[in-house]
Specification:
Helices cover 33% and strands 16% of the residues. It has 541 residues and is of the alpha/beta class. The chain has a domain at 3-49 and 107-153 and 389-471: FAD/NAD(P)-binding domain. The chain has a 5-stranded mixed sheet with strand order 1-7-6-5-19, with helices on one face. Helix 6 (194-206) links the parallel strand 10 (186-190) and strand 11 (209-214). The protein is globular and about 70 Å long. It starts with a helix and ends with a strand. The structure holds ligand NA7. Ligand NA7 binds at residues 151, 157, 190-196, 215-216, 335, 356, 384-387, 498, 500, 505.
Length: 541
C-alpha cells in the first residue's frame, strides 16, 4: 500500500462491515449485522433504496413469485402486518413494501444513496477492505458484503443508428419515475425476455401502435394474477410459520405444489391432464409438475409442445402464432416467463410482431427502425434487452484481493466461488446470491436471508475464535466450481439459446453455468453442514 493510500485510509470512515447495494439483500444484511452489534454502512448507487425494484419501474413490472412468498420471512411482525393487494404484486407495491421495512427497522440512517462503489482493495497487512466510491470517498472495513444484485447491470445494446433516432428511447431497466405518456405514440419494443413480455400488454394498451421486435421467442406461462382474497391472505398469515419452513425444503425455496413423480413414469395422457391442470393454475408451478422436466429430453419436449399448442390456441393469426412459438431450445433452459395476457396482446389490431431472426434489424433511422424487408416508423423505442447477469455487478467494480490479484483476471474464464458466497484470494468478502449458488433459480428474498444469516454466523465464529480474516481455500473452491459445472451439465440448461444462465446473452462473456443447479434446499443443507464442520473449506487467519 502506498504512503498516499495509507494517509487516505487514516482519514477514511471505518466500519465493521461495508455492504454494497440497498436492495432486498443489502437491507437485510444491514438489519441482521447491525442487530449483532456491528457498525454497518450500506453504499447504494441509486438515489433511493430498493435495488431491482427501484430501477425496473416499466409498465407491467411485477414479481412472478407470489408475494406472500416473495417477501421477508425473518420478522413475523412484518409478515403479519403488511397487506398485499394482489397475488403477484406489481413493482410499485413491492417498492412500497421495501420502504416500509426500511422505515420500520430504521435502516435509512446507515445507508448512503447516490454512492456507487468503483473499487475495493484488500489490505493484507491490516486485513481490511478499502472501498472507494465514484465521488472519491474512501471507506474501510474488515468485512465487505456484496449485495450488488444478479440482474443489476443492464446490457448496453449497440444498435446501429440509435444515437440518431429523433424520438425518445427508454430502457425498461431505468424507466422514468412518474411514467411516460404514450398516448397517440407509435412504439417499438426490442426484447422479449421477462421485461419485454411483462411490458408488452401495458404498452399496447397505452400506445397508439406497438411493434414488438423478437429475436428468440420465449416460453411463458400465464400468471392468473388476481386481487388478493381476504380468505387467502388470512390462511397464509395463520400458516406462515409452517409454510416458510416447508418452502425451505424445496428446490426453489417456493411452495409450488411440486409434483413428486417424474414425467417419464406416467403416460402421455396423464401428462397432458397434468399440463392442463397446471396451466389453469398458472405460474412457476407449471415447471414443477414433474421432477424431470429439466433433465429428461422427451418429457421436456412434451411440455414444450404443450406450451406451443397453447400459444397457437390463443393467438388468432397463425403466422404470428408460429413466430411466437419457441422451437429450438428446451423449455426452462432460458429463464421461463410468467405473463398476464402476453400472447393475447398479439390479437389486438394495434400490435405487430417482427421476427428479427428472419428479418434482421439493419439500422435504427431518425424516424424508426429499418429491417431487411421494411421501414418501421416510431416516436418511441423501448429497450428490454437484458442484463450482464450474476457477474456484471461484481466485475464493474475494480476488486483487488491478496497479492494484487484482480477479480476480473480471476474470473476471466468465468466466475469461481466457494458456495457462491466466498472467493479464494479475496478474504472477508462475502457475496449475496453470487454465481455458484442457487440464487436466481430460487426465491431471491429467502435466498438472501439464508446467505446473510450464514455470513453473520461465520463472522460471529471468526470473532469468537479471535481470528481476523476468513477466506475460501483454493482447493475447496475448485471442487465447488467443478460440482456446479457437473450439476449444470446434467441438465438441459446448457442447451438454452442466448441464455443469461450461461452468460450467453453477452457477447464475449465466457459460457459457463452461473447458478447452482442442485436445488436450493440441498444447497442450504450443504452450507449448514460446512458451518457445523467448523467451516470446512475455509481458512481462518
Ligand atoms: P432477458 O431475459 O435477458 O431478455 C432480453 C431480451 O432482449 C431477449 O429477448 C433478447 O433476445 C433481447 N435482446 C438482447 N440483445 C438483443 C439485440 N442485440 N437485438 C435484439 N434483441 C436483443 O432480460 P429481461 O430484462 O427481460 O429479464 C431479465 C430477468 O429479470 C428475468 O429473467 C427475470 O429473472 C427478471 P435473445 O433471447 O437474447 O435472442
Amino acid at each position: 500500500m502506498s504512503e498516499n493510500a495509507k494517509q487516505h485510509a487514516r482519514e477514511a470512515c471505518e466500519y465493521d462491515v461495508i455492504v454494497v447495494g440497498a436492495g432486498f439483500g443489502g437491507l437485510y444484511a444491514l438489519h441482521k449485522l447491525r442487530s449483532e452489534g456491528y457498525s454497518v454502512r450500506v453504499l447504494e448507487a441509486g438515489e433511493a433504496i430498493g435495488g431491482t425494484w427501484y430501477w425496473n419501474r416499466y409498465p407491467g413490472a411485477r414479481c412472478d413469485i407470489e408475494s406472500f412468498q416473495y417477501s421477508y420471512s425473518f420478522s413475523d411482525e412484518i409478515q403479519q402486518e403488511w397487506e398485499w393487494s394482489e397475488l403477484y404484486a406489481a413493482q410499485p407495491e413491492i417498492l412500497r413494501y421495501i420502504n416500509y421495512v426500511a422505515d420500520k427497522l430504521d435502516l435509512r440512517r446507515d445507508i448512503e444513496l447516490n454512492t456507487q462503489v468503483v473499487a475495493a482493495t484488500f489490505d493484507d497487512i491490516e486485513k481490511k477492505w478499502h472501498v472507494v466510491t465514484r465521488a472519491g470517498e474512501l471507506l474501510v472495513a474488515p468485512f465487505c458484503v456484496m449485495a450488488s444484485g444478479c440482474l443489476s447491470v443492464p446490457l448496453s445494446l449497440s444498435l446501429k443508428g440509435l444515437e440518431a433516432f429523433e424520438g425518445q428511447v427508454y430502457r425498461t431497466f431505468n424507466w422514468p419515475e412518474g411514467g411516460v405518456d404514450l398516448a397517440g405514440k407509435r412504439v417499438g419494443l426490442i426484447g422479449t425476455g421477462s421485461s419485454g413480455i411483462q411490458a408488452t400488454p401495458r404498452l399496447a394498451e397505452q400506445a397508439d401502435h406497438l411493434t414488438v421486435f423478437q429475436r428468440t421467442p420465449n416460453f411463458s406461462i400465464p400468471a392468473h394474477n388476481r386481487k388478493m382474497e381476504q380468505k387467502y391472505a388470512r390462511d397464509w398469515k395463520k400458516a406462515y410459520r409452517e409454510r416458510r419452513l416447508q418452502a425451505l425444503e424445496t428446490k426453489s425455496l417456493i411452495l409450488l405444489n411440486a409434483g413428486l413423480k417424474p414425467g417419464s413414469a406416467v403416460t402421455r395422457e396423464e401428462r397432458q391432464e397434468e399440463f392442463e391442470a397446471r396451466w389453469a393454475v398458472g405460474g412457476f408451478g407449471f415447471m414443477n409438475m414433474f421432477t424431470d422436466i429439466s433433465t429428461n429430453k422427451e418429457v421436456n419436449d412434451h411440455v414444450a409442445e404443450f406450451v406451443r399448442s397453447k400459444i397457437v390456441e390463443i393467438v388468432r393469426d397463425p403466422v404470428t402464432a408460429d413466430k411466437l412459438c419457441p422451437k429450438d431450445y428446451p423449455i426452462g433452459s432460458k429463464r421461463i416467463c410468467v405473463d398476464t395476457d402476453y400472447f393475447q396482446t398479439f390479437n389486438r389490431p394495434n400490435v405487430k410482431l417482427v421476427d428479427i431472426q428472419t428479418d434482421p434489424i439493419v439500422t435504427v433511422t431518425p424516424t424508426g427502425v429499418r429491417t431487411q424487408s421494411a421501414e418501421h416508423q416510431f416516436n418511441v423505442l423501448v429497450l428490454a434487452t437484458g442484463f450482464d447477469a450474476m457477474t456484471g455487478a461484481m466485475l464493474r467494480i475494480d476488486i483487488t484481493g491478496v497479492g494484487g490479484q484482480k477479480l476480473k483476471d480471476k474470473w476471466a474464464e468465468g466466475p469461481r466461488t466457494y458456495l457462491g458466497m466466498a472467493i479464494s484470494g479475496f478474504p472477508n468478502m462475502f457475496l449475496i446470491t453470487g454465481p455458484g449458488s442457487p440464487s436466481v433459480l430460487s426465491n431471491m428474498v429467502t435466498a438472501v436471508e439464508l446467505h446473510v444469516d450464514w455470513i453473520a454466523k461465520c463472522i460471529a465464529y471468526l470473532k469468537q475464535n479471535e481470528y481476523v480474516a476468513v477466506e475460501a481455500e483454493h482447493q475447496a473452491e475448485e471442487k465447488w466450481v467443478a460440482r456446479v459445472n457437473e450439476l449444470g451439465n446434467g441438465t438441459l440448461i446448457p442447451k438454452g439459446k442466448n441464455s443469461w444462465y450461461m452468460g450467453a446473452n453477452v457477447p464475449g462473456k465466457p459460457r459457463v453455468i452461473l447458478p447452482f443447479l442442485g436445488g436450493a434446499a440441498n444447497y442450504a443443507k450443504i452450507c449448514e453442514e460446512i458451518a457445523n464442520d467448523r467451516y470446512s473449506g475455509f481458512r481462518f487467519i
